[in-house]
Design a protein that fits this description.
- The protein is of the alpha+beta class and 165 residues long.
- The chain has one domain: Oxidoreductase, molybdopterin-binding domain (Sulfite Oxidase, Chain A, domain 2, Alpha-Beta Complex), CATH 3.90.420.10.
- 25% of the residues lie in helices and 31% in strands.
- The protein has 5 helices and 10 strands, in the order H-E-E-H-E-E-H-E-E-H-E-E-E-H-E.
- A 5-stranded mixed β-sheet has the order 2-1-10-5-6. Strands 3, 4, 7, 8 and 9 form a 5-stranded antiparallel β-sheet that branches.
- A hairpin with an 8-residue loop joins strand 3 and strand 4.
- The N and C termini lie far apart (43 Å).
């Protein structure tokens, strides 16, 4: 009986391994995740196009920002879903923007605040002109401590890469 179980496990391992693999992007790569990750789809790490990000499960967040005049409605994917998809482990993220701006974000923020990788604001796709195509958004109105500059610097817009450390 034990030998049968071992044989079945050996036969199942390739299927289990493939299930954990990320598909390759078919569109333009919007986000690259590197560092302490278990699942890769390129030599660079884990690359995501828009379709792949949206497939992780859409979410909407209404909040004010330090850069908009009123409450905005953001649509995107939870940052935690991206980290889970790549099998990320670590205590810190380094978020990098297209213009080389970098911010260090404690992984505890991801667990505590359910941050969003916003792809749309007020029903329109984010572009470089309006902080896109990806903007890290915190639920600022739900947590008073998020209304400080210590957190404002973590709202990385024009996000292009995440390194998990």
């Amino acid at each position: 009986m034990r030998q049968v179980a071992v044989v079945l496990l050996c036969l199942a391992l390739p299927v289990i391994a493939r299930a954990a693999e990320l598909p390759k992007p078919t569109g333009e790569v919007m986000l690259t995740v590197t560092g302490a990750i278990a699942h890769r789809n390129s030599e660079a790490g884990a690359e995501f196009d828009r379709e792949m990000l949206e497939a992780l499960g859409p979410r909407t967040l209404r909040t004010s920002t330090a850069w908009t005049d009123s409450v905005a409605e953001f649509e995107g994917v939870p940052l935690a879903a991206v980290i889970a998809a790549v099998g990320g482990t670590g205590e810190e993220l380094v978020a990098s923007a297209i213009n080389d701006y970098k911010a260090q974000i404690p992984m505890d923020d991801v667990r505590r605040y359910q941050m969003l990788l916003a792809l749309r604001m007020n029903g329109r796709d984010l572009t470089l002109r309006d902080k896109g195509p990806i903007w890290i958004v915190y639920p600022r109105d739900d947590h008073p401590e998020l209304r400080t500059n210590a957190y404002n610097v973590r709202w990385v817009w024009a996000l292009s890469a995440l390194e998990i450390r």
